[in-house]
Design goal:
The complex is a heterodimer of chains A (about 110) and B (about 120). Chain A has about 110 residues and is mainly beta. Helix content of chain A is about 0%, strand content about 50%. Chain A is built from no helices and eleven strands. In chain A, strands 2, 4, 5, 6, 9, 10 and 11 form a seven-stranded mixed beta sheet that branches. In chain A, strands 1-3-8-7 form a four-stranded antiparallel beta sheet, with no helix packed on it. The radius of gyration of chain A is 13 Å and the shape is globular. In chain B, about 0% of the residues lie in helices and about 50% in strands. Chain B has no helices and twelve strands. Chains A and B meet through strand 4, strand 5 and strand 9 of A and strand 10 of B.
């Protein structure tokens, strides 16, 4: 089954404790992105990758890191989480050519206390 | 920068009736893509319908159709014969070609739709 997986689905942590949210896709997509969803703001792009070893900042990159060492994986790293990073996070992937549909993972609910 | 506005934070409709969700956007681009995504309580993001700006014909997917008014920068979603399973948050989204930023989507704030029995 074609899918994007994320782990963990739920995470409660404390300020300053490094964490990683994993993302993996099995569709051989070139493009991958991370979004965060906050009430009233919709989803906003954090980082994206257009291929292995090619990553760049989205609209809200502060406090986050990513890596793309393999085509299928795109982990999101919070090296020193803060309460304002409490949010719902989505990983997404898509082909570099049309029809440009983004396939989303199931989401990770992160709470930073 | 592109912005997407959904002016209706919440809406409700009776089962089997028709409802229209509004979306406006601001861009200086001529070619772009527009999408409606559905997010049910499971939180999964599900693509409902897409529209290419160069196509004048409005997109349709079964009970879902759009009214795309390019000059007015408006992209509304009509749901006909509403079903209980349509209860969800609906997001309007914009994508700008030439494809940059990993096919980045700019989302509106969402409209929460409740279908009542």
């Amino acid at each position: 089954e074609a899918q994007v997986t994320q782990n963990p689905r739920y995470l409660i942590t404390v300020t300053g404790k490094k964490l990683t949210v994993t993302c993996s896709q099995n569709m051989n997509h070139e493009y991958m992105s991370w979004y965060r969803q906050d009430p009233g703001l919709g989803l906003r792009q954090i980082y994206y990758s257009m291929n292995v070893e090619v990553t760049d900042k989205g609209d809200v990159p502060e406090g986050y890191k990513v890596s793309r060492k393999e085509k299928r994986n795109f982990p999101l790293i919070l090296e020193s989480p803060s309460p304002n990073q409490t949010s719902l996070y989505f990983c997404a992937s898509s082909l570099s050519t049309g029809p440009h549909e983004q396939y989303f993972g199931p989401g990770t609910r992160l709470t930073v206390t | 920068a592109q912005t997407v506005t959904q002016s209706q934070p919440e809406m409700s409709v009776q089962e089997a009736e028709t409802v229209t969700l509004s979306c406006t956007y601001d861009t200086s681009e001529n070619n772009y893509y527009l999408f409606w995504y559905k997010q049910p309580p499971s939180r999964q993001m599900i693509l409902v319908i897409r529209q290419e700006a160069y196509k004048q014909q409005n997109a349709t997917e079964n009970r879902f159709s759009v009214n795309f008014q390019k000059a007015a920068k408006s992209f509304s979603l009509k749901i006909s014969d509403s079903q209980l399973g349509d209860t969800a948050m609906y997001f309007c989204a914009f994508m700008k070609p030439p494809i940059r930023a990993g096919n980045m989507l700019t989302f509106g704030g969402g409209t929460r739709l409740m279908v009542k029995p």
